[in-house]
């Protein structure tokens, strides 16, 4: 894949925004969910939100001042959460940054969240690099969040006034995203292991022979009822015991 430099990426985004028919004088995203739709959206993305929150809070605490807000979106750029100092959150709400608002290029033009989704890469967008005038007083740093398959499932974005621009803000966002992705991958791996265990447990329960599962340390992890009957012991007394004790 050929990576473009940041200036070229912003230019491409502006071209797409123009093709989408986004008006530079627009004060609103072209798409915003109603209350019922927001409720359904938050339920649908509950796992992403719950996993992300501890890391969003951590990034918030790392920011040197309270002049930034952290925005979490879904894979389509719809805002799921806004975190920051109450005063700052209320101030940015005047720019119509709210839960249920779509921040993709098609609906609000060039901004860090929309570009991160379109280009599948971290990006910082500042001042006049935004397409609509209302955001030209801001600096925004965003990175896409991926699932274990490498698919985009959302973005994390740090937004502040344009004069607060600093390269480390994008680094903080990337750090937060990597932490979120690692947590999601770990949980998915545990789910897969549990599924395999349940499948294996189902098999040994139904086989007409005695089956014992022993780990590398010689401890009994599982035994079926037929096996316990052969040994003339209770299953509960065998599991977690040393195999040398069960079968000298």
What does this structure look like?
By secondary structure, the protein is of the alpha+beta class. It has helices at residues 6-19, 35-44, 46-62, 86-93, 105-108, 112-119, 167-206, 225-231, 235-238, 243-246, and strands at 69-74, 79-84, 123-126, 138-146, 152-161, 212-214, 220-223. Helix content is 47%, strand content 17%. The strands form two sheets. The protein has a five-stranded antiparallel beta sheet with strand order 2-1-5-4-3, sandwiched between helices. A two-stranded antiparallel sheet has the order 6-7. The longest helix has 40 residues, at 167-206. The protein is elongated.
Low-confidence stretches: none
Strand content: 15-25%
Count of individual helical segments:
10
Q: Structural class of the secondary structure composition? A: alpha+beta
- What is the mean predicted local confidence, pLDDT? 90
Structural topology:
Layout: H1 6-19, H2 35-44, H3 46-62, E1 69-74, E2 79-84, H4 86-93, H5 105-108, H6 112-119, E3 123-126, E4 138-146, E5 152-161, H7 167-206, E6 212-214, E7 220-223, H8 225-231, H9 235-238, H10 243-246
Antiparallel strand pairs: 1-2, 1-5, 3-4, 4-5, 6-7
């Amino acid at each position: 894949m050929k990576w473009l430099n940041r200036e070229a990426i912003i230019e491409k985004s502006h071209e797409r925004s123009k093709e989408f028919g986004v008006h530079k004088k627009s004060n609103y995203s072209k798409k915003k969910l109603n209350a019922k739709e927001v409720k359904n959206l938050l339920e649908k993305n509950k796992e992403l939100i719950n996993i992300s929150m501890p890391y969003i809070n951590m990034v918030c605490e790392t920011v040197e001042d309270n002049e930034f807000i952290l925005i979490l979106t879904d894979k389509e750029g719809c805002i799921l959460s806004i975190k920051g100092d109450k005063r700052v959150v209320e101030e940015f709400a005047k720019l119509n940054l709210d839960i249920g608002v779509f921040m993709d290029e098609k609906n609000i033009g060039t901004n860090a969240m929309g570009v991160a989704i379109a280009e599948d890469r971290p990006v910082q967008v500042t001042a006049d690099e935004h397409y609509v005038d209302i955001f030209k007083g801001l600096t925004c740093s965003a990175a896409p969040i991926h699932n274990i398959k490498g698919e985009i499932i959302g973005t994390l974005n740090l937004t502040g006034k344009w004069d607060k621009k600093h390269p480390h803000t994008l680094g903080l966002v990337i750090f937060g995203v990597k932490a979120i992705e690692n947590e999601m991958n770990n949980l998915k791996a545990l789910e897969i292991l549990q599924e395999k265990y349940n499948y294996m447990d189902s098999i040994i329960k139904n086989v007409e022979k005695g089956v014992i599962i022993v780990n590398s340390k010689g401890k009994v992890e599982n035994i079926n009822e037929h096996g316990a009957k052969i040994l003339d012991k209770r299953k509960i007394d065998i599991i977690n015991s040393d195999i040398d004790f069960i079968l000298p």
